[in-house]
Amino acid sequence: MQDPPFITRRHLLGGSLALLGAAASGCAIPVGLGSSQTRVKYWHFLGASDGIIMNRMVGAFAQDNPGIFIEENVLAWGEPYYTKIAMAGAGGRSPDVATFHLARLAGIGAGELLDPINLDLLAEVGLQPSDFSPPIWERAHYKGTLYAVPFDAHPMVQYYNTDLCEQAGLLGPDGKLQPTTGQDQLLDQLRKAKQVLGGKPPLVFDALGLGTVGPWRVWYSLYPQSGGTLLSEDGSQVTIDDQKALDALRFMRRLGEEGLCDPTTDYGASVAKFTNSEAAFLWNGDWEVTGLKERGTPFSMGRFPSVFGSGAAQADCHVFVLPHQRDRDPEVERATYQFIAYLVKNSADWAVAGHVPSYLPALQEPDYLALQPQSEYRSVITDVALDPQVWYTGSASRLWIEFGGAFSPVISGERTPEEGLAAAKAALNRLMSAPNPFPAEER
Amino acid sequence: MTTTVAAPATTSPAEKAQVKRSWTQHGLLFVIPFLLIYVAFLVWPTLLGLRMSFTDVNIAGSNDRFVGFANYAEAFADPRMWRSLWNTLVFTVLSTVPLVILGLALALLVHHLRFMQWLWRLSFFGPFLLPSAVVSIRWLQMIYPPEYGLLNGTLGTDILWLGDPSLAMWSVVLTTVWWTVGFNFLLYLAALQSIPQHLYEAASIDGASAWDKLRSITLPMLGRTTALIIVLQLLASLKVFDQIYLMTGGGPEDATRPIIEYAYDVGFTGYRIGYASAVSYILFVLIVIVSLAQLRLFRKRAEVSS
């Protein structure tokens, strides 16, 4: 015989309610919040070494400002991040500040899901428009209103293995890679490196894979060098110059055909091969620098090679935005601007991650200039090839993925450059005819 | 509800009882809490969604202008919508068949195993208790990875389980079957245990073999359960989203994107709530058709059996 358990229905109901209450209040009060602190909620997508450095900067800010508590939330990069920001902004109870990609600004409905930046408050914390790289500051506006505070630019760069390049006789007397101009010099350099590697492809980049954007990044570094553009200023006309676009694509195919680049590496494999000195060159964004240093690869970095004229390189920029809030607490708002100003003014610390500060005073700081190899490619900040300012562009956008998918088979030879360009143009036309969720004028 | 007027003090006991009975018969007061929640969280959003599907509203709630059937016209001309609808149908067929047959097979097995029944029950039903995120991440990161995954390691193969467009859907189905077959198994097991034992005894006396008993007693007695399981399974499979979103994100090359993910993509990631609502209503109509067809089928069967 067993006694029935001594729990009445009322006990159970009461107990569950108490538990629910405890759970709800547990959600509302984050650990570490002192009662007198102002809480600033900050969302970002910075992972790996970027994330570690950002976390350190947030910690340093907290030490200098004991009255402010920064609640740092790291979310998954890419589409899921922009989905969450939009949802938070739509609800009007969003984080106080968020990291964002500049090229995404035109697509998020600035003014509806994002709140404008208050220039007076920005001046109060010591930031002036003239402090920022002019083309980037310009792009931080949408319909004439400032919606973003620029933080950095992260251009395509060229990583090179110093040991392998030395063996191939490619380094100058200063130990740096001898810069190349035009197709022939670059091909010559790659052929020499190929010999040292025993015939293995000397160059790797993200060339293949699901949703790969690497081929887009390479193409949009090469093509703008000859002055090529994608869209007219207002985004209404395709302005692709077929000849220039095909020149860039044929060059990419030539790299694959001659075995100078490896068309079968996806993002991870390209970084792994360069890390293990199985390739002499890596074309990638500037953010791999910390990881490569940690893993002890003998490497340095320089600007993306100039092949078709200028030294342009595909880039996007990290910026800070204020997702829309229905009621912004003035005290929290002030603390938010303080926090943004702290991060921007300490851009030299951030540059350790590889990114080029868009805050111009930071570019002159001895701390930054001493960073090797992160300061080697700083001059690119005036040559960045940013996405056209239309709603379907930006990091991890449909445009990048469509163009990446169109050009990936060109490198491996499964598709001719002409077919690749036709596929890209068809995708661009599809994107242009798709309805903009935030039309410029109410129709 | 007209009988709920306050009864005068002179009411006879008989009348009082009558008032009480009809009051509890309606029971409206008791279901009001449920009805309020049902209306607020199901009926109202459903109607709101229908209205949204005729507008171009975005995620910020602006651009809310009436566009008539433009969203539906766009959806019917949208190859990615058709592709995702097709994927949902393929998944439904590929998953429902093994989920029903395997559920029955496992139930028969456990029903006839005479030792450690609790262990078999637990093993087959256990996975069903796991949340979708746990299941998806376990398969994504431990079983399917091409280089170090359990599956390729065991088979000694080099297969891109989730990366090959022609295989990805099968892999998703395999995971889903492992995860959810336990529910059908449990329903079948309960049904098996409620088949009266004397039928089998009588059959044994008549000299029926095990196969005869299965074919002529067990399967017919399970008919209603099978019908129920098929309905539940079809509806569950048509609503597939979690495991695909978590394991493949709809890829590779859109080979696994179900229609619900497409609605999510165009609505929450693409910010076009109006268009997403139209896509959702296309699925809604499909589910209503399946349910109606099922109802008709049931009614016919019930008439035949009576």
Rounded to an integer in angstroms, the radius of gyration calculated over CA atoms of chain A is 25 Å
Q: Rg of chain B, please?
A: 26 Å
Helix content of chain A: 40-55%
Mean pLDDT over all positions of chain A: 88
Number of strands of chain A: 15
Describe the protein's architecture and organization.
The complex is a heterodimer of chains A (443) and B (306). By secondary structure, chain A is of the alpha/beta class. Chain A is built from 17 helices and 15 strands. In chain A, strands 8, 9, 10, 11, 12, 14 and 15 form a seven-stranded mixed beta sheet that branches. In chain A, strands 1, 2, 3, 4, 7 and 13 form a six-stranded mixed beta sheet that branches. The longest helix of chain A has 20 residues, at 9-28. Chain A has two domains: 37-151 and 317-369, D-Maltodextrin-Binding Protein, domain 2 (3-Layer(aba) Sandwich); 154-315 and 386-433, Periplasmic binding protein-like II (D-Maltodextrin-Binding Protein, domain 2). Chain A is 42% helix and 14% strand. Chain B is mainly alpha-helical. At the A-B interface, helix 3 of A face loops of B.
